[in-house]
Amino acid sequence: xxxxxxxxxxxxxxxxxxxxxxxxxxxxxxxxxxxxxxxxxxxxxxxxxxxxxxxxxxxxxxxxxxxxxxxxxxxxxxxxxxxxxxxxxxxxxxxxxxxxxxxxxxxxxxxxxxxxxxxxxxxxxxxxxxxxxxxxxxxxxxxxxxxxxxxxxxxxxxxxxxxxxxxxxxxxxxxxxxxxxxxxxxxxxxxxxxxxxxxxxxxxxxxxxxxxxxxxxxxxxxxxxxxxxxxxxxxxxxxxxxxxxxxxxxxxxxxxxxxxxxxxxxxxxxxxxxxxxxxxxxxxxxxxxxxxxxxxxxxxxxxxxxxx
Length: 308
What we know:
Blueprint: H1 2-27, H2 34-55, H3 59-66, H4 69-94, H5 98-120, H6 126-145, H7 151-169, H8 174-182, H9 186-198, H10 209-233, H11 238-244, H12 247-259, H13 266-283, H14 288-292, H15 296-306
């Protein structure tokens, strides 16, 4: 059992580590337009997923979902959301906004709490509500001190958060999910790639062999973290997964500031500090000590609400 948990922790670190270092991958393709990178990422992810489907004998699950109109609609919505998330992320990374992408993925777990309350009537305790307040203060501080709304961070958090809500409605394994999410947009991506190539503006075969390899391997770069995540989720508790998930935005933040020399001012520090406090409160909110420290008045009303 302990060996399985250790293996699960290693898989989780591998998944979130790969997601954390992904900006370096897209940055190495910064000379290619983001929409073309997205088209290749979607199409080669689909090819990679199809190979995995047949290798792991998941074809029955895929066919089963394809026969269900409700599931198809939900996967269509999921496909649009994850495609939007990918294009925003790729564009932001290649436009020098890696710090803002990391903020988006720090916000995401807290946004999930709010979405769970909104869509699934999940109940929040005192410390979880306080954590959401801290997160809101951090976002507002960034918006007011930089003179612009942090749309990159919030759009990444929102698209991925709502994507998570849709995925909760159609629970399935990561291989089947990746396949069905790329089916609606893979043909469009292929047509767009062919169009670019026919116009002489496509990158395949026109730039370098290294560029071709990176574009084609983008499907593997997308699929491998998902497989590692699925393997981890089967072996360790979600609470542990939730703690390890902060590895990805932390790596992204370090890459943005240390490797690509993006600006990280005192205002950034204050905004991130609010988010980090919020994450700490949220992460430890269910521990016995934090539960015992809830104000009596609040605790009484929460218990009354839970008994309804």
